[in-house]
Amino acid sequence: MDKLPLDLPEFQAGWVWLVGGGPGDAGLLTLYALHALRSADVLIYDALVGDDVLKLAREGCVLEYAGKRGGKPSSKQADISQRLIQLAREGKRVLRLKGGDPFVFGRGGEEALALVAGNIPFRVVPGISSGIGGLAYAGIPVTHRDCNSAVTFLTGHNASGIVPDNINWAGLAQGSPVIVIYMAIKHLGDIAQKLMINGRSADEPVGIVSRASTPAQQVLETTLGTCVEDVARSGIEPPALVVVGEVVRLRSGLDWMGAIDGRVLTSDPLNIKDQSDKVVSA
């Protein structure tokens, strides 16, 4: 690594580093993450880690895929954890690289506890969560003083692959002005109905961001009442984030990536009355 005005921790043999790879753009990696990529003997990566990130691994590093994708053949969590322990016991420097942040719906805590049980030393390197960084690339802030002073992050499915049944949907719908939902496309209709039944307006703005921060990024601006039909019509596919709330309207002023491509932004997006047109952009 180029000389830096800070001391980077040594990636020791027999250690596992649980590292967040950010939402997709390799430029959003932390210095510690880049250091790990350039030091590891073995890299165990998930389905949300992009090719540009993997290319940063040092020459000779062994890459092993251990991704999980809903509805597709996936590695079992217990097998992934055991593989990390096995490689560490062989004296390897093991990098477990996850999309986003390891501790934000990334099962990093489960893997870390398995390492503790196996008496394996580890380090956690946080990453930029897609629920913050990915939405920022879409021009949607998760907080804005004119819209909200609270935000809730939740997963669109539990360990069984269904909509979580331990969420207080009434409390969520009535208490959180902005809701960011990971892995929600499959159950979007059910989630939208739960929110509307418990008080959210069918006209409330919804943003859906697919493959956030990558060249394949797509953004759909829709509403809670029509989001399912609009997703089907747009062809947007997972991995995708869903954000519900007035902050979605700010995109007409904050779509900085669109502005690079020529979109004219407005300085007062919350006062634009007609928000009815559905917008899909790269």
Automatic annotation (TrEMBL):
Alphabetical list of InterPro entries matching this protein: 4pyrrol_Mease, 4pyrrol_Methylase_sf, 4pyrrole_Mease_sub1, 4pyrrole_Mease_sub2, CobA/CysG_C, Siro_Cobalamin_biosynth, Uropor_MeTrfase_CS
GO molecular function annotation: uroporphyrin-III C-methyltransferase activity
EC number: 2.1.1.107
Protein's pathway: Porphyrin-containing compound metabolism; siroheme biosynthesis; precorrin-2 from uroporphyrinogen III: step 1/1
GO biological process, one term: methylation
Pfam families (UniProt xref): TP_methylase
Record's keyword terms, sorted: Methyltransferase, Porphyrin biosynthesis, S-adenosyl-L-methionine, Transferase
CDD domains named in the record: SUMT
Domain Tetrapyrrole methylase, first and last residues per copy: 16-226
PANTHER family found in the cross-reference section: S-ADENOSYL-L-METHIONINE-DEPENDENT UROPORPHYRINOGEN III METHYLTRANSFERASE, CHLOROPLASTIC, SIROHEME SYNTHASE-RELATED
Family recorded in the similarity comment: Belongs to the precorrin methyltransferase family.
NCBIfam families assigned: cobA_cysG_Cterm, PRK06136.1
Protein name: uroporphyrinogen-III C-methyltransferase
Natural source organism: Kiloniella antarctica
Lineage: Bacteria, Pseudomonadati, Pseudomonadota, Alphaproteobacteria, Rhodospirillales
Gene: cobA
